[in-house]
Amino acid sequence: MRKKGKIVLASGTFDLLHLGHVRYLEEAKKTGGKNAKLVVIVARDKTVGKRKGVKPIMPEEHRRALVESLKVVDEAILGYEDFDIACVIEELKPDVIAVGYDQAGIEEQVRRAVACSGSSIKVVRIEKFGRDELNSSLKIKTKISQMYRR
Amino acid sequence: MRKKGKIVLASGTFDLLHLGHVRYLEEAKKTGGKNAKLVVIVARDKTVGKRKGVKPIMPEEHRRALVESLKVVDEAILGYEDFDIACVIEELKPDVIAVGYDQAGIEEQVRRAVACSGSSIKVVRIEKFGRDELNSSLKIKTKISQMYRR
């Protein structure tokens, strides 16, 4: 019987996909070892709007499909409208949850939910890739708006 | 002996990667049939600057690596500084060259070069995917700049 790989869970908005996103997902998958399966939760427009006060540029279904078209990703799904990490854990039963360097708020929620669930899920933080200013959707947007203002 | 698949060549700038790019690449690969290999030429910053008067937002190596991280892509390479389709044909020996709906200028160059080379390379045009306004890097940039002006 073939040994089943671990399920690694990553998440994000992935508005304006850039290399920093791909590196985060690659590092996330590595934490699950050989044969790991990477499932990515893509935040819904509504959730992002509530959290950041402004909806993403790209609609949720575009963002989801684009993330799923990456080699490193096995499956990309849209998040719950009201993000509830306990439900996610219950439903997807991940072995590892990988949070990005800029997801401190989410990391805290995740650690609390994991502790409550009494499960042995590993929570890992993926460090930022490179120092490049273009590893951030916000900085890309700022660069574009500055170029167009001229 | 395993039958070797056809080599399909696609090209573009791929600044701000979106779903329209992925669909173009998927359709391009399909034209090569089973076991096709998709090689993508990503335009250099300099070439884009000369042609469009403004360099891309994302640097060439980021754009290349991001395109290569897509499932549908077998290999992504940076173009020649002075784009010369005859050299590309000579070096990569593609079976099919797929041009995008918005690459009319390139299509003409390609058809001329193929005719001159006396080869049997097929040139196909891939139609636009959907009517969505967000299937264009330019429209995405415009939307961003409008949002930031407010």
Verbal overview:
Chain A is 43% helix and 16% strand. The first copy, chain A, is globular. With 150 residues, chain A is α/β, with parallel strands linked by helices. The first copy, chain A, is built from six helices and five strands. Chain A has a five-stranded parallel β-sheet, sandwiched between helices. The model of chain A has no long low-confidence stretch (mean pLDDT 88). The A-B interface holds A 16-19, 22, 54, 57-59, 62, 65-66, 69-72, 132, 134, 140-145, 147-149 and B 16-19, 22, 54, 57-59, 62, 65-66, 69-72, 132, 134, 140-145, 147-149.
Q: What structural class do the secondary elements of chain A suggest?
A: alpha/beta
Oligomer: homodimer
Order of helices and strands of chain A: EHEHHEHEHEH
Please report which band the strand proportion of chain A falls in: under 5%, 5-15%, 15-25%, 25-35%, 35-45% or over 45%. 15-25%
- Percentage of residues in helical conformation of chain A: 40-55%
Query: Mean pLDDT score of chain A, rounded?
Result: 88
**Low-confidence segments of chain A, ≥5 residues, pLDDT <50?**
none
End-to-end Cα distance of chain A, whole Å, is: 62 Å
User: How large is the count of helical segments of chain A?
Assistant: 6
Taking Cα atoms only, what radius of gyration of chain A do you get, to the nearest Å?
A: 16 Å
Number of strands of chain A: 5
Major beta sheet, strand line-up of chain A: 3-2-1-4-5
Largest interface: A-B, 27 and 27 residues
Specify the biggest β-sheet of chain A: 5 strands, parallel
What gross morphology of chain A would you assign?
globular
